[in-house]
Amino acid sequence: MRILEFDHVSLAVDEFGDRSDPSVLLIAGATQSMDWWTPKFCGVLAAEGLHVVRFDQRDTGQSTTSPPGHPSYTGLDLATDPVRILDSLGIDAAHVVGLSMGGGIAQHLAVHAAHRVRTLTLIESSPAGGDCGDLPPPAPALSAAESALPEVRDWANASAVIDYRVEAERAYAGSLGFDEERCRAIATVEFGRSRHMGSSFTNHFLVASDAAIDPSLITAPTLVVHSDTDPLFPLPHGEALARLIPDAVLLRVDGMGHEAPPPQLWGTVVPALVDHTLSRERCLRNQGLS
């Protein structure tokens, strides 16, 4: 892992695999550091011939952090940070994978920096704008679970913060069930790396809607991965994305919640993601554009 420095902004970046392989940029969801794209998941992708890049968005992990409730950036800053990372790493274009809010950022990139996006994969995300009709709201149980979260009086208290993260994630599990042991292990790593987790739980939600775009303008080959048991963005959100984005393909994965694909589903999601990216690489090579 290394820290990239920009104009008064630091972004932590991690890489897996051979840099001569096609690059895949993973963008996490709101409040989550790069740790939720686990090293094992990144390693599986790298073993398939991909150069994998993950990073801490602002207010997560070891990247620049603002005081809770007072983000020193906008949603547009979050949406353009990936371009800064690609520039710094010398990557002309990448296969962009976005989860939830990261999917909104990925959509923004695919419209406003289309030449930097080879393919797009949107996981448990929702249209970042456009005419998507009436989409179902989050499951009522989410608001009840949020109200029941334990109070954190001291964000430097490891036990309290890790318990809070675990309980916050529990509500987003799908019908496959909640793997508390795995979640707690990730949360423990995340806490140990983070400057102030209280900032990430607050600030992303204050800026997340600043960069709306029309998904119908996306031209990159797009794979939409969505489950039937996502409590935040029910399946019609993924179906709307697949309908709005020209020629998008919807991969429905039963049982996943609002989360990065858990290990039980890697056998389904990873082959689809690898085929989506590498088939585009083959197409570009055949056109002499790679």
Describe the structure.
Helix 8 links the parallel strand 7 and strand 8 (249-252). Helix 2 packs across helix 3 and helix 5 (158-170) packs across helix 6. The protein has helices at 39-47, 75-89, 101-112, 140-147, 158-170, 180-193, 197-207, 235-244, 266-286; strands at 2-6, 9-16, 23-27, 51-55, 94-99, 117-123, 222-226, 249-252. The protein has a single domain (2-135, 196-286), classed as 3-Layer(aba) Sandwich (Rossmann fold). An eight-stranded mixed β-sheet has the order 1-2-4-3-5-6-7-8, with helices on both faces. Helix content is 39%, strand content 16%. The two termini are 28 Å apart. It has 290 residues and is of the alpha/beta class. The protein is built from nine helices and eight strands.
What Rg, in angstroms, do the CA atoms define?
18 Å
Strand content: 15-25%
For the record, the CATH class is Alpha Beta
Given the structure, what is the number of helices?
9
Secondary-structure element pattern, one letter each: EEEHEHEHEHHHHEHEH
**Category from helices, strands and their pairing:** alpha/beta
Helix content: 25-40%
Taking the sheet with the most strands, its summary is: 8 strands, mixed
Number of discrete domains:
1
> What is the overall pLDDT average?
94
What is the approximate shape? globular
- Gap between N and C termini, in Å? 28 Å
Query: CATH superfamily, please?
Result: Alpha/Beta hydrolase fold, catalytic domain
Beta strand count: 8
CATH topology: Rossmann fold
- Strand order, sheet with most strands: 1-2-4-3-5-6-7-8
Keywords:
9 helices; 290 residues; globular; alpha/beta; triacylglycerol lipase activity; AB_hydrolase; Rossmann fold; Alpha/beta hydrolase; AB_hydrolase_fold
